[in-house]
Write a structure and sequence with these properties.
Strand content: 15-25%
Structural class: alpha+beta
Shape: elongated
Largest sheet: 2 strands, antiparallel
Order of helices and strands: EEHEEEEHH
Mean pLDDT: 86
Helix content: 25-40%
Distance between the termini: 45 Å
Strand order of the largest sheet: 1-2
Number of helices: 3
Length: 125
């Protein structure tokens, strides 16, 4: 999802249910090129997907539209959860399960078959 943050407000593009016009396709094209060039995430020799990455992009300087540019790339970004209608926490939870399953080598189907109750701890633990 996309959010435009200024020092006074947050805005969403019309294409995503907001009220403002932005060169969203140009920004997304630039964003895709950036994400394609980020290094892989490897843990224990396994390449894992990203949990969440936000590209902070700009397209105006002194009020004039310019080619999109990158301000920063964040792997722990602000979510702006009050500024969009998406259930990002649900999406992130699903991605966490996917990443964990890939890391431990278990399919989601196998995970669903596992007992939900954890064994009771013994007094010696």
């Amino acid at each position: 999802y996309s959010v435009c943050a200024t020092n006074r407000s947050y805005m969403r593009p019309k294409e995503e249910g907001g009220k403002h016009q932005f060169p969203l396709e140009r920004l997304k094209d630039s964003d895709a090129k950036i994400l394609d060039n980020l290094p892989e995430i490897k843990v224990g020799g396994k390449v894992l997907p990203r949990l969440l990455t936000r590209c902070d992009m700009g397209f105006k300087i002194d009020g004039e539209e310019v080619d999109p540019y990158v301000n920063e790339v964040e792997f722990v970004p602000s979510l702006y959860i009050d500024e969009h209608p998406f259930l990002i926490d649900q999406t992130l939870g699903k991605q966490m399960v996917d990443i964990t399953c890939q890391f431990v080598g278990v399919s989601k189907e196998q995970l669903k078959k596992q007992p939900r109750d954890l064994p009771a701890k013994s007094k010696s633990e």
